[in-house]
Amino acid sequence: MKDIRNIVILSGAGISAESGIDTFRSEGGLWERHRVEDVATPEAFARDPDLVLRFYDMRRAAIQTKEPNAAHLALARLDAEWPGELLIVTQNVDNLHERAGAERVLHMHGEHLLAWCTACDTRSPWTGTLIERPPCPVCGERALRPDVVWFGEMPYRMDEIYAALREADLFVSIGTSGAVYPAAGFVRNAREMGAHTLELNLEPSKGTRWFEEARHGPATQIVPAWVDEVLSAAS
Ligand SMILES: [Zn+2]
Known about the structure:
Number of helices: 9
Largest sheet: 6 strands, parallel
Shape: elongated
Strand order of the largest sheet: 5-4-1-9-10-11
Order of helices and strands: EHEEHHHHEHEEEEHEHEEH
Bound molecules: zinc ion
Strand content: 15-25%
């Protein structure tokens, strides 16, 4: 561990599942009884904005009732105590990393608690509902949508993510299915640049063979154990 200075962590739905936040990719492909293509695509929003806004209003309300778990808390401790570079790239749109205290967090799929104004292209903190078409706090237009990257849209801040992967000494994927690109390809990007690669997941992911090392079990157990190891090796 002595030669590791720069850590990039990719976190996915598996880390929030133990806080009670369910995901798309559970069996059947249904999410709260909706098909993905009915609620999480730009086409769905164009076709039936009320359905999509109501769905995200429900999700936004639900995540605010959830609490960070031991895995989020362990990563926040790593963020606070790690002496080198660190970036938590999350696919999650909840704010549980931040509520656990992590600061170096990048939301590649956006955030439930932001509203994006498509008229003036600003993001505003948002905890309430959007179904009633409230005005944008910046420009006053009624053009707010959830600031969540839908299927068919480009993930955010990819240049920053690839730059971090190029510099990484250690790449750790936590609670991701390994099925959704581009995130599923990060392990190969990191490896090509010489990073050590580690998977922490409930079970072997679809991409598990790309990792040099893998540990399987509940995130609330294996993530704190790994963080303890990394911090004690660094001290
Ligand atoms: Zn606006």
